[in-house]
Amino acid sequence: xxxxxxxxxxxxxxxxxxxxxxxxxxxxxxxxxxxxxxxxxxxxxxxxxxxxxxxxxxxxxxxxxxxxxxxxxxxxxxxxxxxxxxxxxxxxxxxxxxxxxxxxxxxxxxxxxxxxxxxxxxxxxxxxxxxxxxxxxxxxxxxxxxxxxxxxxxxxxxxxxxxxxxxxxxxxxxxxxxxxxxxxxxxxxxxxxxxxxxxxxxxxxxxxxxxxxxxxxxxxxxxxxxxxxxxxxxxxxxxxxx
Length: 242
What we know:
Elements (H helix, E strand, L loop, with lengths): L8 E5 L4 H11 L5 E4 L10 H11 L2 E4 L1 H9 L3 H10 L4 E4 L8 H11 L4 E6 L4 H6 L2 H14 L3 E4 L18 H8 L8 E4 L3 H11 L5 E4 L4 H9 L11
Parallel strand pairs: 1-2, 1-8, 2-3, 4-5, 5-6, 6-7, 7-8
């Protein structure tokens, strides 16, 4: 099954046992478009190459979490990070600045540098709740457009695995003012990947943007549930399904 160009589901692997990972891809892989090996888990996963082989066989793209990029960046070792990505056969990479002291301009500079070498998925937003709440809607819009202009294939909106930072408030509710300003800024929604690790966020984005919204940080166990939300086969989205 060819990867979808709209309505993508990105599954995050937080370090699943390899047999469970293989079972997930075998069971629900037709509804998975991308897999992200969360944060730096790839470096301590003994069977990472086996997992990658499973994804290749299924025709599913993969990449390593932006925190791994940041870990190498903070030590001035991004050439080593690039070599690691090539060695692992990763044609996709994530570039972020959600934890380290890297400006949005510097991050978009890395996006521009890497687009001839990889397909780049950038991430906007920060993980720390205090820093996140200090970002205005204008900050979000500027950073998204900057990354797209630099050549990012997709721009991810940060929500963490908890769904309680970035595009979300501390209580887990989406920051609707920011979402609305992003959507009214002229950006193509198909170029955005909204992190939505729980049903509440998944439902919100499907209701707001429809079945073709790109959703990320979805747990493997939730893939079927997300697909039913997209198709209006669950009460949460049935009234608004087309």
